UniProtKB/TrEMBL annotation:
<keyword id="KW-0831">Ubiquinone biosynthesis</keyword>
<protein>
    <submittedName>
        <fullName>Demethoxyubiquinone hydroxylase family protein</fullName>
    </submittedName>
</protein>
<feature type="compositionally biased region" description="Low complexity">
    <location>
        <begin position="1"/>
        <end position="13"/>
    </location>
</feature>
<keyword id="KW-0479">Metal-binding</keyword>
<keyword id="KW-0560">Oxidoreductase</keyword>
<feature type="region of interest" description="Disordered">
    <location>
        <begin position="1"/>
        <end position="28"/>
    </location>
</feature>
<dbReference type="InterPro" id="IPR009078">
    <property type="entry name" value="Ferritin-like_SF"/>
</dbReference>
<keyword id="KW-0472">Membrane</keyword>
<comment type="pathway">
    <text>Cofactor biosynthesis; ubiquinone biosynthesis.</text>
</comment>
<keyword id="KW-0503">Monooxygenase</keyword>
<keyword id="KW-0408">Iron</keyword>
<dbReference type="Pfam" id="PF03232">
    <property type="entry name" value="COQ7"/>
</dbReference>
<dbReference type="InterPro" id="IPR011566">
    <property type="entry name" value="Ubq_synth_Coq7"/>
</dbReference>
Length: 196
């Protein structure tokens, strides 16, 4: 019996070695500040998603994948923490961490096809979300450091989506349905995070 191919390590991150931008938050339009809060929440959820995998599966490939991608998401979170002081962050961070753990733990518990489908779906959605933020920032607050941060994070998320999709290119419909729910909830979460 042939053993499964190893999970690919996350490719070199665009945020490796990147220092945080230093925008003047008070000079940024409120809409951009809300987007930064939503991005901070998104990266908080992403770290928690990969944290949730550890207690939900013993599959070595899934655990390797989660650990590798968690390192990149943790780097993103540190960059947003450096930009956004605690008083500007969401008041619901404990809830966001819990929801991330569920979003990672449940599909990992159900099995690799579910986990990879959720990661591929959510990360592809996040790629598009960052693209919309970049377009907005270019129009309203074209701070070069901020744009570089958003673009680098977007490219990392795109790699994560491709890594997951490559590991299970044809998940069952139930896994695709769970991924659809996770994507829908991600959109709801962003709308809430902009304001709370």
């Amino acid at each position: 019996m042939q053993s499964p191919a190893p999970a690919p390590a996350a490719q070199q991150s665009d945020t490796t070695g990147m220092g945080p931008p230093n925008p003047d938050l008070s000079a940024l339009p409120p809409r951009i500040r809300r987007e930064l809060r939503a991005s901070h929440v998104g990266e908080t959820v992403a770290v928690a998603l990969y944290d949730g995998v550890a207690g939900a599966t013993s599959d070595p490939e899934v655990l390797r994948f989660a650990a590798s991608h968690r390192r990149v998401e943790r780097r993103h979170l540190r960059l947003f923490e450096a930009v956004l002081p605690p008083e500007r962050r969401s008041a619901l961070l404990a809830f966001w961490r819990w929801s991330g753990r569920v979003m990672g733990g449940l599909p990992a518990w159900l099995g690799p096809p579910y986990f990879y489908a959720v990661v591929a779906g959510v990360e592809a959605w996040v790629d598009g979300h960052y693209a919309r933020q970049i377009d907005l920032a270019r129009r309203l607050a074209p701070d070069p450091g901020l744009l570089t941060l958003l673009e680098a994070c977007r490219l990392d998320e795109r790699l994560h989506a491709r890594d997951a999709a490559r590991l299970d290119p044809a998940p069952p419909w139930t896994a695709r349905a769970l991924a659809g729910v996770a994507v829908f909830l991600s959109g709801v979460g962003v709308r809430v995070a902009r304001w709370v």
